[in-house]
Every structure is written in C-alpha cells, then in structure tokens.
C-alpha cells in the first residue's frame, strides 16, 4: 500500500509540475501578444488623430471586417461568450484563429475611430491560446477548463496592468455571485506572469492622477473612511448601477433591432460607421472616438481629464451613445474601456452636484460602472486598488457593490451563469 501511495504522490507531483510549466509558457505567450496588441493600439490611435479623414472610412472598414468574419470566422464570432460557454460545458473547444481575427478586427476598428475597448480582445486572445495549448498537450477536460480560466485571467490582467483583479475577474465572471476557488492559484499565477511579460516588452500603462488619499480628522490623523463621503459615494453608486444597466440593455436591445433592420451581419457595421460620422458632426469634436483614455486634443474629454478640475457634464451621455451604436452594429473590441470612460465621466459630473472631490468620484465611477455591467464587484474593487492605491479601498468597495446591486442581473457577458441558467437564457424567459 505504501508503494501505491508513493507512486500516486509522485504522479501527482509530476502532474503539478507539468501544468506549472504549461501555465508559465502560456502566460508568457499571452502577455507578449497583449504587449503587441497595446503597441498596435497606440500606433493606430496616433495615426487616426494625425489623419482625421480616416473616420470617413469607418463604414467600409466595418463591412470589410464583417465580411471577413462572415466568410472565414463564423465559428469564432461569439467572442468571449464562447470561452465562458466552453468552461461551463466543455465541447469542441475554442478555435485558435479567434486570436488573430479579433486582434486584427479591433486594431482596424480603432484605426478608423470606432468607440470600442480592448478587454474583449485580450480575453479572446487568452482563451484561444489556452485552448490551443490544451489541445497541443492533450490535456484532460478538467485541465482544459482550468487553462481557459487562466487564459482569461492572463489576458485581462496583462492588458490593464491589474494582475490580481485579472485573476479574480476570471473566476467572478463565470457565475453571478459565486467563486470557484479551485482555479484561484493557477489564475493568479497566469495573470501575474502575463503582466510581467507584457511589461518586459516595454509597454507602459496609463497613470490615473488620483490625489485624494483620505480626509483629516479633528485630531489631525488621516481618516480613510469618512461617513459623509461614504454616504455620498453610495448615493452616486446607485446612479452608476443604473448606468451599467442602461449600457448593457441598450447594447442588447439595439443589436436585436439592428438584426431585424439589416439581416446581413456583415453589412450592419456600415450602419454603425455612418451613425458615428453623423454623431461626430452633431457633437462637433472627436473626443468620443476610440478608447478615450487620453485626450485627442488639449482640453478634450478623456478618462484622464475627468480626474482634473474641469467639469464635463454630458461626456458620459455621448460616450454611451457612441459606444452602444458601434457595439450593437457588430464592431469588434470590447466594452470595458468605454465603461471606464462612462464611469469616470459620470463621476466627474456627479462630484460637481454632490460637492465631492472630483478625482475620488471619477475613480469610484471608473470601477463601479464596469462592476455593475460585468457583475464582478470584487474584481473591480481590487482593480481600483491596483490602479489608484489602497487608501480609498472602502470607497471603491462601496461603489462597486452598490452599483452591482442596482444594475440587476443584466450584464455585458450573456454566457455568465445565474444559478444554472446563462444571462441569455434568463433574458429570454423574462
């Protein structure tokens, strides 16, 4: 019996070593691809700003990408939802070509000015590379699921420079209100290594200037949880949750309308492209094109701008409209960075009304609107700590959990489970 036990232990150790080596290799690859992706985004964004006329090519670019997916990529068009579905119900796997398809499509979208994000691309790159790695090493079904979770964590953590949030996000996004801690250690390992790999290529993430680090109490000590501020943050978070709900519902419902109006999937991006051009003419500037992390011109609206003293009362509304239009019409990219913009902009506007530090509420809105839209409050709280520091963690937690409570069960990831049903199935029943 001792020989059998020793043999079993030796076999288990070998399995752990083998999986560890596979995870390290996969994480380095994902981090490197995300570094390439972020570099490409910087290049095409600079090109678009330098050549504003590129915007008028957005409808044709959208149709070209749509035709490319229609002819060669129908089985990967589901994107991040395919990966979540595969984790819940392992089947045919996730195709490797998902990675180049979504990477190229997202870069094209940003080159011509579509208001899309980048997390969808990072998650799909991570998931497709993880699936290919599982196939290459002939891993078992349970190991393949673990690798897919790690792929999500590595992609998310490296593209935003938030490895801890990436690991928790990969667990939290699968099932609403439940975490599967079996995958926590490998997901954290993958996310951290991918982030290291991405930074090793010289990629730098944007610094967000949050100066608020607490308030002084009567005895001169620094107070990190002021009751009045906490109450105001909770009130603002109700608005953030409603914005999350509005965003997710608007994308889903407008997408359904688009399918009815234009049954050809490859032609729908032309509608979104034309609408974006008309919206730019209405607004009179190009602040709401692309990621919107940095201002396209001095004084323009951007995520970084919302942390300063300037007041932007309607930027949240225009970013919502620009993003919903292109996502519903089928442009590739993601929702998260536009949600960051929407949250920071609404925080900027509410801070003026609630007489709060503008940078604090912009930071809380930044993470809270995404928390409500993705149903991932814990990951977003940790993201707030990694991006802005730990001093304001109580406000991040209040904002994220309250926003999530008021956003309902609507979310941007329709394959996320609610009990035994996906959000897509729950929506159809309602």
Q: Can you walk me through this structure?
A:
The protein is mainly α. It has 16 helices and four strands. The chain has a two-stranded antiparallel sheet with strand order 1-2. A two-stranded antiparallel sheet has the order 3-4. The longest helix has 49 residues. It is globular. The N terminus is likely disordered. Keywords: Membrane, Transmembrane, Transmembrane helix. It is a multi-pass membrane protein. This is Voltage-gated chloride channel family protein. Pfam families: Voltage_CLC (PF00654). It is found in: Membrane.
Provide mean pLDDT, rounded.
88
N/C terminus separation: 57 Å
What is the N-to-C succession of helices and strands?
Answer: HHHHHHHHEEHHHHHHHEEH
Molecular shape: globular
Fraction in beta strands: under 5%
Structural category: mainly alpha
Low-confidence stretches: 1-11
Strand order of the largest sheet: 1-2
Beta-strand segment tally = 4
Radius of gyration: 21 Å
Count of DSSP-assigned helices: 16
Report the biggest beta sheet as strand number plus sense, adding barrel if it closes. 2 strands, antiparallel
Helix content: 55-70%
Protein name: Voltage-gated chloride channel family protein
Transmembrane segments: 20-41, 53-72, 146-171, 222-245, 266-284, 316-341, 353-373, 393-414
InterPro entries: Cl-channel_core, ClC, ClC-type_chloride_channel
Membrane topology: Multi-pass membrane protein
Brief summary of the model shown:
The chain is an all-alpha fold and 430 residues long.
Give the arrangement of secondary structure elements.
Blueprint lengths: L1 H49 L7 H15 L7 H9 L9 H15 L6 H18 L4 H20 L2 H10 L11 H17 L14 E2 L5 E2 L3 H35 L6 H16 L31 H14 L7 H19 L3 H17 L2 H12 L4 H14 L10 E2 L2 E2 H7 L1
Antiparallel strand pairs: 1-2, 3-4
Membrane topology: Multi-pass membrane protein
Organism: Gluconobacter cadivus
Pfam families: Voltage_CLC (PF00654)
């Amino acid at each position: 019996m001792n020989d059998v036990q020793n043999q079993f232990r030796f076999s288990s150790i070998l399995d752990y070593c083998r999986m560890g080596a596979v995870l390290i290799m996969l994480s380095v690859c994902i981090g490197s691809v995300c570094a390439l992706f972020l570099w490409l985004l910087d290049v095409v964004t600079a090109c678009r700003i330098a050549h504003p006329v590129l915007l008028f090519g957005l409808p044709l670019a959208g149709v070209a990408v749509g035709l490319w997916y229609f002819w060669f990529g129908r089985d990967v068009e589901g994107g991040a939802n395919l990966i979540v579905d595969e984790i819940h119900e392992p089947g045919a796997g996730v195709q490797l070509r998902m990675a180049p398809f979504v990477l190229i499509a997202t870069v094209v979208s940003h080159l011509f000015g579509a208001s899309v994000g980048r997390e969808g691309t990072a998650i799909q790159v991570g998931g497709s590379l993880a699936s290919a790695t599982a196939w290459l090493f002939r891993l078992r079904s349970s190991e393949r699921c673990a690798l897919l979770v790690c792929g999500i964590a590595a992609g998310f953590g490296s593209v935003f420079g938030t490895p801890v949030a990436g690991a928790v996000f990969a667990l939290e996004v699968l099932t609403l209100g439940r975490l599967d801690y079996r995958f926590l250690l490998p997901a954290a390992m993958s996310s951290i290594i991918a982030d290291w790999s991405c930074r090793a290529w010289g990629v730098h993430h944007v610094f967000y200037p949050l100066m608020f680090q607490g308030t002084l109490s009567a005895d001169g000590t620094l107070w990190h949880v002021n009751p009045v501020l906490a109450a105001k943050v909770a009130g603002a978070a109700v608005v953030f949750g409603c914005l999350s709900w509005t965003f997710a519902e608007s994308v889903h419902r407008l997408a359904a309308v688009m399918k009815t109006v234009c049954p050809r999937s490859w032609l729908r991006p032309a509608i979104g492209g034309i609408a974006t051009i008309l919206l730019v003419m209405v607004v009179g500037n190009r602040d709401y094109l692309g990621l919107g992390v940095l201002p396209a011109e001095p004084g323009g609206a951007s995520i970084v701008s919302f942390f300063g003293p300037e007041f932007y009362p309607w930027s949240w509304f225009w970013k919502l409209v620009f993003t919903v239009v292109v996502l519903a019409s089928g442009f590739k990219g993601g929702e998260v960075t536009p949600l960051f913009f929407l949250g920071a902009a609404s925080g900027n506007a509410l801070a003026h009304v609630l007489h709060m530090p503008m940078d604090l509420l912009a930071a809380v809105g930044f993470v809270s609107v995404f928390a409500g839209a993705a149903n991932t409050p814990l990951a977003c709280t940790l993201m707030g700590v990694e991006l802005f520091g730990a001093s304001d963690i109580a406000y991040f937690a209040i904002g994220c959990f309250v926003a999530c409570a008021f956003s309902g069960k609507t979310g941007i990831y329709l394959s996320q489970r609610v009990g035994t049903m996906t959000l897509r199935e729950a929506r159809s029943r309602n």
